[in-house]
Amino acid sequence: MTYLYLIMAIAFEVLATSLLKETQSFTRLLPSIMTLAGYGAAFFFLSLTLRALPVGVVYAIWSGAGIVFISAIGWIWFRQALDAPAVIGMGLIVAGVGVINLFSKATPH
């Protein structure tokens, strides 16, 4: 269940961050409410994850996955360019998350 909570936290954070631009500095009501609700849900599921995993590991996975997914959404949805260093950096983030999950003794296997 722990990793399901973490996936939910990542999904809600990515959704909320994706909607953040649509709030137009929190001047549009519906996107603003959806953004705040998304962040609230993200932190709720993140707190459930912290019952079983160390905060450093959880935060590394949560933020790393969020960076990659938000960058992909920005590239696809908002047509924002990603250059080679950005792609390489995100590849390193994915590799780091993989190393944590596969080899760290701080996470259950």
Features:
109 residues; transport; mainly alpha; membrane; Small multidrug resistance protein; choline transmembrane transporter activity; 4 helices; transmembrane
Q: Care to describe what's here?
A:
GO terms for molecular function: amino-acid betaine transmembrane transporter activity; antiporter activity; choline transmembrane transporter activity. The chain crosses the membrane at residues 32-50, 57-78, 84-103. The structure is a single chain. The protein is mainly α. The protein has one domain. 75% of the residues lie in helices and 0% in strands. The chain contains four helices and no strands. Helix 1 crosses helix 3 (55-76) and helix 3 (55-76) packs antiparallel against helix 4. It is flat and about 45 Å long. The two termini are 13 Å apart.
Topology:
Layout: H1 2-20, H2 29-49, H3 55-76, H4 84-103
Helix pairs in contact: 1-2, 1-3, 3-4
The N- to C-terminal Cα distance equals 13 Å
Query: How does the overall form come out from the CA principal axes?
Result: flat
What does the largest sheet look like? none
Please give the count of helices: 4
Overall structural domain count: 1
Kindly state the percentage of residues in helix: over 70%
Helix-strand topology string: HHHH
Rg from alpha-carbon coordinates: 15 Å
Structural class estimated from helices and strands: mainly alpha
Give the uncertain stretches in residue-range form.
Answer: none
Mean pLDDT: 90
Which percent band covers the strand fraction? under 5%
GO molecular function: amino-acid betaine transmembrane transporter activity; antiporter activity; choline transmembrane transporter activity
InterPro entries: EmrE-like, Small_drug/metabolite_transptr, Small_multidrug_res
Membrane topology: Multi-pass membrane protein
Keywords: Cell membrane, Membrane, Transmembrane, Transmembrane helix, Transport
